[in-house]
Design a protein that fits this description.
Blueprint lengths: L1 E7 L2 E6 L3 E6 L13 E7 L2 E7 H6 L10 E11 L4 E11 L4 E4 L18 E7 L2 E6 L7 H8 L4
Parallel strand pairs: 2-10, 5-7
Antiparallel strand pairs: 1-2, 1-8, 3-6, 4-5, 6-7, 9-10
Length: 156
């Protein structure tokens, strides 16, 4: 399986590449007044408005820095609009630092981390390579529940 690798601080994480539409360089985003800090802003992507979520902030309470290695991963994200109880799929951007390489692992390479965090359901199994432990991130679970209506309300 193919994965995208990124870092938050010194720690390495991966998520499945099959969820990605495209990875683009960091771009200027239109800020959204009074939005939660993890909402980085809006991206003009080929004439469409795409909300961008700051993964660094969701994982570490630290905003992503606009570095050369900072990227926006555009993904088809399936979420739930809790007001209408409908599923919706929208394109969202994930702002991520050091999102610069792909790696391959087999399903059998992964093992349970031994730790389950109720507040961080997106953290998954781990894999060990020559440089240490890498944790799998489920990007379908990374958006906080309170943000679901904000991101999916207009598409239902």
């Amino acid at each position: 399986m193919l994965f995208m690798q990124f870092k938050t601080g010194k720690e390495r994480y991966i998520f499945e590449a099959r969820d990605i539409i495209e990875v683009i360089p960091y771009a200027n985003l239109k800020p959204i007044p009074k939005a939660p800090p993890y909402v980085a802003g809006l991206l003009n992507y080929r004439g469409h408005t795409v909300p961008v979520v700051d993964v660094c902030y969701l994982m570490s309470d630290k905003l992503c820095e606009p570095k050369l290695s900072t990227r926006i991963a555009l993904v088809n994200y399936k979420g739930v609009n809790y007001k209408n109880e409908h599923n919706a799929t929208v394109c969202i951007g994930l702002l991520i630092e050091q999102l610069t390489e792909t790696v391959r692992f087999d399903e059998a390479d992964f093992s349970d981390s031994g730790v389950v965090l109720k507040d961080d359901p997106y953290l998954g199994k781990v894999v060990i390579d020559d440089h240490g432990i890498i944790q799998l991130v489920n990007i379908k679970k990374i958006i906080p529940a309170e943000a679901q209506d904000m991101l999916f309300d207009s598409v239902i």
